[in-house]
């Protein structure tokens, strides 16, 4: 689809294209499109296909160890060069497993979650969210606890309704960016002797630029349903990269 001319065209694609299907995942990483799974009739697929947009050709990526099982109605998202696939449904019902594919080596890894995973679900939304934290270091014995607390404070503040990053407060701006940042209030310059206050939560002091912060990448999962007909309204996050 050409957005400038608002017109569709059929591309001359080479190679063996995937079989007709629906409920599959399609994720773009650079100039490559990846397709996983889906279903047709009562058949579920576990195949993995790649289309090179420069060569305009399809290729079938052979299954290797730890590949996701056959499924449909799952969701996938690219985080850098990695593809994350979560949930969906199979012949046995809804799923709650998470896999990561390194598109440089085409190797799959099953991600072992710390704590209980989201409930088994299909037809949900999933995207990447980026937040920023201070580079301020703490002692080793406090590091993990502090990072967890900082992450919780950022998410509690930034994802709640009415916050500067929430959809409600941005719906009139037309912005749909997946990167969530937060504003740091400016210091009071009326009193030069007054100690510079620290921003709320996990931010650094006010004279620390946001660009000096550490980016934290999350997967945000929202909603969906199970095969019993229960519809979910929860939102869950998974930290994909541990801050240094």
Automatic annotation (TrEMBL):
Annotated stretches, region: Disordered: 155-213
Keyword Lipid metabolism carried by entry: no
Species per Swiss-Prot/TrEMBL record: Magallana gigas (Pacific oyster)
UniProt-listed Pfam families: Kelch_KLHDC2_KLHL20_DRC7 (PF24681)
Gene3D superfamilies xrefs: Kelch-type beta propeller (2.120.10.80)
Entry function: Rab9 effector required for endosome to trans-Golgi network (TGN) transport.
Alphabetized InterPro entries for the sequence: Kelch-typ_b-propeller, Rab9_kelch_effector
Record flagged with keyword Repeat: yes
Protein name: Rab9 effector protein with kelch motifs
Keywords, comma-separated and alphabetical: Kelch repeat, Repeat
């Amino acid at each position: 689809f050409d957005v400038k001319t608002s017109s569709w065209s059929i591309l001359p694609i080479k190679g063996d294209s995937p079989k007709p299907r629906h409920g599959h995942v399609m994720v773009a990483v650079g100039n490559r499109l990846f397709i996983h799974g889906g279903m047709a009739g009562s058949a579920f697929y576990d195949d993995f296909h790649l289309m090179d947009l420069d060569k305009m050709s399809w290729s079938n990526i052979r299954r290797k160890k730890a590949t996701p099982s056959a499924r449909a109605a799952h969701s996938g998202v690219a985080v850098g060069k990695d593809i994350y696939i979560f949930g969906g449904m199979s012949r046995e019902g809804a799923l709650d497993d998470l896999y990561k594919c390194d598109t440089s080596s085409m190797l799959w890894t099953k991600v072992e979650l710390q704590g209980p995973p989201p409930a088994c679900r299909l037809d949900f939304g999933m995207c990447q969210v980026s937040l920023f934290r201070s580079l301020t270091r703490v002692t080793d014995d406090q590091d993990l606890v502090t990072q967890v607390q900082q992450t919780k404070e950022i998410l509690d503040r930034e994802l709640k309704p009415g916050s500067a990053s929430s959809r409600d407060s941005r719906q009139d701006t037309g912005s749909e960016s997946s990167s969530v940042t937060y504003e740091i209030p400016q210091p009071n310059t009326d009193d030069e002797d007054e100690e510079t206050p620290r921003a709320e939560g996990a931010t650094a002091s006010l004279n620390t630029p946001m660009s000096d912060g550490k980016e934290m990448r999350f997967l945000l999962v929202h909603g969906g349903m199970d095969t019993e007909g229960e519809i979910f309204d929860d939102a869950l996050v998974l930290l994909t990269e541990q801050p240094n």
